[in-house]
Amino acid sequence: MPVAPRVPLSVAAALALLALPVPVALAKPAASGHALPMAWQHRFHVRSAAADTDHDGLTNWTEFRAHTNPRRADSDHDGTRDGAEDADRDALSDATEQRAGTDPGRRDTDHDGLPDGREDADHDGLRNLAEQQTANDPGDPDTDDDGIRDGDENAGQIVAFDGHTLTLRLASTGRTVTAGFDDATAVDCSAPDDAQGDDGDGTTDDGTGDDAPQAAASTGDDATDDDDPTASAASASGSAGDDASDEAGDASADDGCVDEVLDVGTWVHEAELLDDRDGTSVFASLELVDRS
Question: Kindly report the CA angle at 31 between 54 and 82, in degrees rounded to 5?
Fold first, then answer.
């Protein structure tokens, strides 16, 4: 009976190691979850896929997929920052795609036949495009962290308003809600700056941020208070005139806000309805997306 040749122990051990499966960790790309092509890194002198080299709201990986320059906040010099551009023409800005986890270089990232804008990345009842239109975050089911899903906050678009009754088309379902609007309805004319980021990185379709309108509103209130001699005199005497003056100034600011922004087509970030005022539905508050 032939005897099998003996294999040295060291060789046998080496063969056994080669037969072992390669650990998954060795096959993973960079820590960000993406690996930039070396040629692209050398071309733009960047390394980290997760970094935002030009501070335009887009990571280097998103810039690579969108074919923009990671060292220029406005790659094509058209006055619109890269975050507000729509590289794949799917109606979602590149910054929105980044937050939704979709590919700014593909209209249908997961190849399921549904365009990225119609997907609901965070499963909150609002599709990605609706999140962008209402200044919500497609990557966060509760953008304002108030314990209510974005899809349940009556975000939508004003379709009718006669000064006393307002009709809102809900972005979540497409149905309309009609309710009263009166002097007690609180109106905020700008969505939160941090809803999708600031400085034009995808908050609006035209690339403008929300910082400027907020600053203007704040400056207007201060100017009204400072120029009011009655308020100054009341402050000096310690009377209750301060409160009345401040309330008048606030009312004036609210009226201007309503006159300029509360129009058909205005997008609503959030709306609160009350059903117990004289037995009718009334808007208690409206938080608008100011794109003026």
Answer: 25
DSSP3 helix / strand / coil % (the chain, rounded to 5): 35, 15, 50
Delimit the domains of the chain by residue range: 31-119, 151-292
- Kindly give, in sequence order, each residue whose CB lies less than 8 Å from that of residue 95, ignoring residues fewer than 6 positions away: 57, 58, 83, 84, 196, 197, 201, 202, 203
Residue pair 79/53 in contact (Cβ under 8 Å)? The answer is no
Q: How far apart are CA 144 and CA 91, in angstroms?
A: 24
Phi-psi region of 265 (alpha: psi -120 to 50; beta: other; left: phi over 0): left
- Residue 97 has a pLDDT of 96
From 249, 214, 216, select the one nearest 231 (Cα to Cα). Answer: 249
Instruction: Give a three-class secondary structure readout of 56-90.
Output: CCCCHHHHHHHCCCCCCCCCCCCCCCHHHCCCCCC
pLDDT score, position 290: 74
pLDDT (0 to 100) of residue 2? 56
Other CB atoms within a 10 A radius of the CB of residue 87 amount to 21
For residue 287, report the phi and psi dihedrals to the nearest 5 degrees. -115, 115
Question: pTM for this structure?
Answer: 0.67
Phi, psi of 100 (to 5 degrees): -80, -15
User: Rounded distance, CA 64 to CA 30, Å?
Assistant: 15
Parts of the chain with a pLDDT under 50: 7, 11, 14-15, 17-32, 193-256
